């Protein structure tokens, strides 16, 4: 039998920390905020990671000190907790010299890197929601066979005549990572706000944070009233909406807006029928609207995206250009998502700048 390693002991301590935290805050809160936190390694600090910057900020503000206390109680050693947003695989490496602060790396699977959003280009109409990226508009969305229907539906929703009532309600877009869901949702928010509508764009995590914060400050009624008085609600990454109370509140908000003739636009990584963690009532209401899938990017579309984005990079970085034959090669060989294409272009840019 193989003797337990230092990494095994750290993993066991982390399991005990999580179990105690679950008992302290309750299953629902734990599932909402800590289900996706991971132990990366233990050195002079305990290094934890989460999949999004928003989740990192929330845990940092509310629980990082308690996590450090629990770790000390379970391990007998005092270490600060360091939170990061994970973007790559943490690989196991041999342990260093056996001292108190040696580094232990816990191996885990890779997780997709979250898409960044700019905090600066958000109109006042969307001020209650998550920040928008000024680059993500209908004008910058590259069309192809795989996304034409989703684009047309999103544009029709965004450009609907005021007072005419929603046509597709809710509009539900689903696709794998990097195929354009967030781009279309933010385009809807930008277009609606530019027409004077009261639009709120929220990630599911931001919705949960707002609800929890409102409960803590006894402002739940104001939170609900604020959301239910808008013209268009745009919710991204719905697959991350967890917890019975959270889902009930979202369902009430959804019903209140739709019953009042307000527009709701939602995106997730799978169709409503496959969101097993969601309440049946929420899934049923979402499935009753227009459900559209964004398919994998075909080669012609990948090439058009590469051309568009390489041109944008060339405008920003003097001397940078990518030959047509290289773009064609990338379109044939690099992944299936927009993020894969961005990564390939960024590598070329780095090579251009650093060599």
Concise overview:
By secondary structure, this protein is of the alpha/beta class.
Keywords:
about 350 residues; Rossmann fold; four-stranded mixed beta sheet; 9 strands; GMP Synthetase, Chain A, domain 3; five-stranded parallel beta sheet; alpha/beta
Q: What is the 3D shape?
A: globular
Question: Taking all residues together, what is the mean pLDDT?
Answer: 79
CATH architecture of the largest domain: 3-Layer(aba) Sandwich
Strand content: 5-15%
State the share of residues found in helices, binned by percent.
40-55%
Query: How would you spell out the order of helices and strands?
Result: HHEEHHEEHEHEHHEHEHEHHH
Structural class by sheet pairing and helices: alpha/beta
Oligomer: single chain
Query: What's the CATH class of the largest domain, please?
Result: Alpha Beta
CATH superfamily of the largest domain: P-loop containing nucleotide triphosphate hydrolases
E-strand count:
9
Reconstruct the topology from this structure.
Layout: H1 6-25, H2 27-34, E1 38-42, E2 45-50, H3 53-62, H4 64-75, E3 80-85, E4 104-105, H5 148-158, E5 171-174, H6 181-194, E6 199-203, H7 204-216, H8 220-228, E7 232-236, H9 244-259, E8 263-268, H10 280-287, E9 290-293, H11 299-316, H12 324-333, H13 338-354
Parallel strand pairs: 2-3, 5-8, 5-9, 6-7, 7-8
Antiparallel strand pairs: 1-2, 1-4
